[in-house]
Amino acid sequence: MEGKEVRFGVANSALFATVTTAASCGAVNAMHDSLTPLGGLIPMLQIMLGEVVFGGVGSGLYGMLVFVILTVFIIGLMVGRTPEYLGKKIESGETKMATLAVLIPAATILVGSALAAATKTGTSSILNPGPHGLSEMLYAFASAGGNNGSAFAGLSANTLFYNLSIALVILIGRFGVILPVLAIAGNMASKKTAPPGPGTFDTTGVLFAGLLAGTVLIVGALTFFPALALGPIVEHLLMQAGKAF
User: Residue 173: what are its φ and ψ, rounded to 5°?
Assistant: First the structure.
């Protein structure tokens, strides 16, 4: 029962954990570190997706617009239609900036976690061995790079290594999104609005919404899948086999 909040129950605690990381809010009503492995994976994945599912506070809109630009570009490659959004041509400059806005935060989270897992300084702060320890490190760097603030409390992060590395992830991860998005905004604002033509793909229908959701999952989730497979997923399989961490 460590870390559980019996006043709210399982359903409300699971719902709060999911919503709080989807909306870049660090508040919790139960310890995420005490959830089941797959229960802890969902809050972590919400941050890794860029907090675009419900929209992070102050960052959800431009985070989703980055995925919109990537989706429009991918659709243009697939069906041969002109990449456009809101009447503005999506060209190589916007696509490159959108790619950077996705890759830089992901790289900071994964590189930071890899350094922590590969060094004695990083692993010495783990209170839970095995795959759960990796989950704790992943969550720490994801929360920092994703502007969240919640944590897997089983990691003793108040050390010189984690104070410096997490601060660096915050700096690179946040500005790695903000600067490319500002560049996209500047490019889009300078372009003239063109009326829709026969080669314009409709970005207001159900089809585009489905393609956008697929892009978020494919680009966002699969980036972190190998790390998640070594952490919460393998931990859940071990838990079902009777081994806990």
Answer: -65, -40
Give the helix ranges, DSSP H, for 6-59.
9-22, 37-48
Tell me the pTM: 0.87
Q: Residue 56 and residue 115: Cα distance in Å, rounded?
A: 27
Q: How far is CA 179 from CA 11, 60, 142, 191, in A?
A: 39, 15, 19, 19
Whether 20 maps to a domain, the answer reads no
End-to-end CA distance of the chain: 14
d(CA 203, CA 107): 29
Q: What is the pLDDT of residues 15-48, one digit of tens each?
A: 998 888 888 787 888 888 888 999 999 999 988 9
Residues in the chain: 245
CB 129 within 8 A of CB 245: yes
User: Is 125 part of any domain?
Assistant: yes
Number of domains forming the structure of the chain: 1
Provide the domain limits for residue 109. Answer: 58-240
For the chain, how long is the longest CA-to-CA vector?
62
147 SS3 class: coil
pLDDT one-digit tens code per residue, 102-114: 999 999 999 999 9
Here the tokens at position 40 are 């802890």
d(CA 178, CA 237): 38
